Amino acid sequence: MAHANVWNSHPKASGKGSRQCRVCAHRAGLIRKYNLNICRQCFREYAADIGFNKFR
Predict the structure, then answer these.
(1) SS3 call for 50
(2) pTM for this one?
(3) What is the Cα 37 distance to its own chain's centre?
(4) DSSP letters for the chain
(5) Model confidence pLDDT, tens digit, residues 1-54
(6) How far is 48 from 11, CA to CA, in rounded Å?
(7) What is the rounded CA–CA span in Å between residue 23 and residue 32?
(8) pLDDT at site 9
(9) Which residue ranges does the record annotate as region Disordered (predicted)?
(10) If one looks up domain 14-50 in CATH, what number appears?
């Protein structure tokens, strides 16, 4: 097994490496509240479609 094949060869069950954005598969900046599992960039794009209102 070459060194390059070692990365992500074992599936993760918990932790940051196991979660990704359901829209773009990005792993950083996830919003997990209310089981959204959307990164912050996609949330800003789809917030109105989901039903979130901006008050201010």
Answers:
(1) helix
(2) 0.74
(3) 5
(4) --GGGTTT-S--SSSGGG---TTT---SSEE-GGG--EEHHHHHHHHHHHT-----
(5) 566 677 777 778 888 889 999 999 999 999 999 999 999 999 999 999 999 998
(6) 34
(7) 13
(8) 76
(9) 1-20
(10) 4.10.830.10
